């Protein structure tokens, strides 16, 4: 089986970053993570300083997120940031939808933004939650989005936890995304009715099967994220990394 480079989504440690930005990044790198989805540095820190810290600890920015449920961002500014930080070429968005017509209208906007990003050599991604698996007229929001967007302009950053919470088998859904899921958000789910977030390998998802599907569709990075944790979030990231290593999935 292919081994993957492993990155982290820092929303997992948002409180720790607010308290000790550089120290938290250092601890992520010490665990063994090679990549991170990261935005502009906190107030008072220049991008050049952020980049110097990342270079020193060996952590690569693989992409960034544009925001949540808003088109109020400048693709060129995001591309400029990725250029300056010598980062990867991915920018992701998440949206909410209230009707089939809303999905189709927003898909058109995604295509236009994806075209702008492509002119700057940045790949635009859509990141799902569970509500994209609700159906309008017998078709899920995510399936409509995938059909209505250009597969070269808008790709998917599938999230395994939210796919499961949406009623899908993450590996099976991933297999439908040939050449369309370069980044894969991996998070596990506890057994039981609550379905709380779990560290990778501590829940009910089969990550070896998920990794096989990721290999088949051309996924480039696995990105660990845990929205909430029953442990210290950095300890959760350490457990997830260790379990991925035991599974033989880490490059």
Automatic annotation (TrEMBL):
Gene3D superfamilies for this protein: Divalent-metal-dependent TIM barrel enzymes
InterPro entries, per database record: IolE/XylAMocC-like (IPR050312), Xyl_isomerase-like_sf (IPR036237), Xyl_isomerase-like_TIM-brl (IPR013022)
Pfam families: AP_endonuc_2 (PF01261)
Listed name of the protein: Sugar phosphate isomerase/epimerase
Ranges for domain Xylose isomerase-like TIM barrel: 25-232
Molecular functions per Gene Ontology: isomerase activity
Species whose genome carries this gene: Paenibacillus zeisoli
Source organism, top-level taxon: Bacteria
Alphabetical UniProt keywords: Isomerase
């Amino acid at each position: 089986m292919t081994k993957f480079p492993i990155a982290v989504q820092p929303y997992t440690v948002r409180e720790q970053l607010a308290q000790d930005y550089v120290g938290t990044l250092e601890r992520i790198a010490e665990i063994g993570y090679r990549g991170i989805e990261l935005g502009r540095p906190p107030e008072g820190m220049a991008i050049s300083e952020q980049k110097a810290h990342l270079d020193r600890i060996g952590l690569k920015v693989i992409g960034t997120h544009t925001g949540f449920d808003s088109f109020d961002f400048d693709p060129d500014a995001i591309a400029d940031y990725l250029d300056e930080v010598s980062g990867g070429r991915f920018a992701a968005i998440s949206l909410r939808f209230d009707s089939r017509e809303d999905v189709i209208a927003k898909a058109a906007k995604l295509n236009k933004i994806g075209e702008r990003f492509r002119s700057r050599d940045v790949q635009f991604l859509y990141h799902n939650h569970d509500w994209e698996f609700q159906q309008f007229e017998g078709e899920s929001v995510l399936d409509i989005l995938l059909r209505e967007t250009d597969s070269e302009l808008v790709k998917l950053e599938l999230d395994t936890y939210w796919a499961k919470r949406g009623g899908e088998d993450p590996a099976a859904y991933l297999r439908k995304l040939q050449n369309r899921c370069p980044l894969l958000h991996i998070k596990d789910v506890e057994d039981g009715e609550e379905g709380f977030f779990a560290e990778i390998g501590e829940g009910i998802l089969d990550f070896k099967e998920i990794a096989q599907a990721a290999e088949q569709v051309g996924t480039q990075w696995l990105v660990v994220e845990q929205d909430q944790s029953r442990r210290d979030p950095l300890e959760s990231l350490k457990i997830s990394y260790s379990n991925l290593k035991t599974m033989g999935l880490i490059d």
